């Protein structure tokens, strides 16, 4: 029996097993401020730890990627309604708890400034600089009538489907859903 | 224990999680292998996070000093 050969075969097997890449795949489903902050803190932290990071924005999460200074034309009635009802960008998000008609959100934001916790703006900037990838779910965009023209400028941001997320998730050592 | 030369100081005072390790990782990327950065932090969480970061990225915390809330990490780029 050739131990060296068996060892190298075993190593190759382990290295090609699912979930062995130093990579984080995260579904960002929620559109609330607190959950978006948590997502971005984990994402930037992971990127700083040397992990490859891919974020898959879907459903309510996509509203955080809207750019309030941009407009997209040619929407149907439902698209316009969604556009009107959903927060226009990351700075319009509300807390998932203790929002208290906006008072809670304002209080949290002022606390974050006071305690020098990075804002979503700073976190997105850090994410971009660290090479965190952002993918947006095509179906969510379609469903809510959102268009790429109204989304933020983010390096390499693209529209994908669930297969892309699964392909990323399968090879990632860490997968999260927030 | 001072058998290393500090190449540069990175001020992360007042910053909260995750910014200390975000800044540290960006700084390390600019350094040469073997160089040591002195990182200043006031975030108690960084006491656990900086060594975890180093372990995971293959770098080394050569020394940690603490006095009244100020933490000084000496981090060496290993690879």
> In the CATH hierarchy, what is the architecture of chain A at level 2?
3-Layer(aba) Sandwich
Calculate Rg of chain B over CA atoms. Answer: 11 Å
Number of domains of chain B: 1
> Can you tell me the residue ranges of chain A where pLDDT is under 50 for at least 5 consecutive residues?
none
Plain-language structure description:
The complex is a heterodimer of chains A (178) and B (79). With 178 residues, chain A is α/β, with parallel strands linked by helices. Chain A has helices at residues 3-16, 33-48, 77-85, 103-114, 120-130, 138-143, 162-171; strands at 21-28, 52-57, 133-137, 158-160, 172-177. In chain A, helix 6 (138-143) links the parallel strand 3 (133-137) and strand 4 (158-160). Chain A is globular. In chain A, 31% of the residues are buried. Helix content of chain B is 30%, strand content 35%. A 4-stranded mixed beta sheet of chain B has the order 1-2-4-3, with helices on one face. Chain B starts with 5 loop residues before the first strand and ends with a strand. The chains are: A alpha/beta (178), B alpha+beta (79). Chain A binds chain B through residues 41-42, 44-45, 47-50, 115-118, 122, 126, 129-130, and chain B through 14-19, 21-22, 24-26, 52-53, 56-58.
What is this entry, summarized?
Chain A is of the alpha/beta class and 178 residues long. Chain A has helices spanning 3-16, 33-48, 77-85, 103-114, 120-130, 138-143, 162-171, and strands at residues 21-28, 52-57, 133-137, 158-160, 172-177.
What is the secondary structure topology, with strand pairs?
The complex is a heterodimer of chains A (about 180) and B (about 80).
Chain A: H1 3-16, E1 21-28, H2 33-48, E2 52-57, H3 77-85, H4 103-114, H5 120-130, E3 133-137, H6 138-143, E4 158-160, H7 162-171, E5 172-177
Parallel strand pairs in A: 1-2, 1-5, 2-3, 3-4
Chain B: E1 6-12, H1 19-30, E2 36-41, H2 46-57, E3 60-67, E4 70-76
Parallel strand pairs in B: 1-2
Antiparallel strand pairs in B: 2-4, 3-4
């Amino acid at each position: 029996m050739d131990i060296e050969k068996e060892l190298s075969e075993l190593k190759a097997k382990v290295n090609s097993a699912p979930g062995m890449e130093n990579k984080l795949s995260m579904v960002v489903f929620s559109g609330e401020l607190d959950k978006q902050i948590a997502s971005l803190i984990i994402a930037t932290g992971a990127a700083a730890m040397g992990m490859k990071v891919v974020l898959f924005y879907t459903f309510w999460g996509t509203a955080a990627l809207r750019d309030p200074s941009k407009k997209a034309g040619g929407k149907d009635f439902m698209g316009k309604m969604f556009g009107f009802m959903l927060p226009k960008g990351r700075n319009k998000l509300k807390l998932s708890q203790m929002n208290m008609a906006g008072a809670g959100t304002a209080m949290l934001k002022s606390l974050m400034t006071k305690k020098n916790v990075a804002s979503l703006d700073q976190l997105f900037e850090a994410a971009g600089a660290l090479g965190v990838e952002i993918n947006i779910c095509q179906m969510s965009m379609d469903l809510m009538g959102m268009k790429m023209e109204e989304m933020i400028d983010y390096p390499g941001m693209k529209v994908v489907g669930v297969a892309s997320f699964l392909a990323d998730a399968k090879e990632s050592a860490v997968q999260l859903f927030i | 224990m001072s058998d290393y030369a500090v190449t540069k100081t990175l001020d992360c005072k007042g910053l909260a999680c995750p910014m200390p390790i975000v800044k540290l990782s960006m700084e390390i990327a600019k350094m040469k292998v073997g160089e040591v950065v002195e990182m200043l932090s006031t975030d108690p969480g960084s006491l656990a996070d900086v060594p975890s970061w180093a372990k995971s990225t293959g770098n080394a915390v050569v020394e940690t000093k603490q006095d009244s809330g100020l933490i000084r990490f000496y981090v060496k780029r290993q690879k």
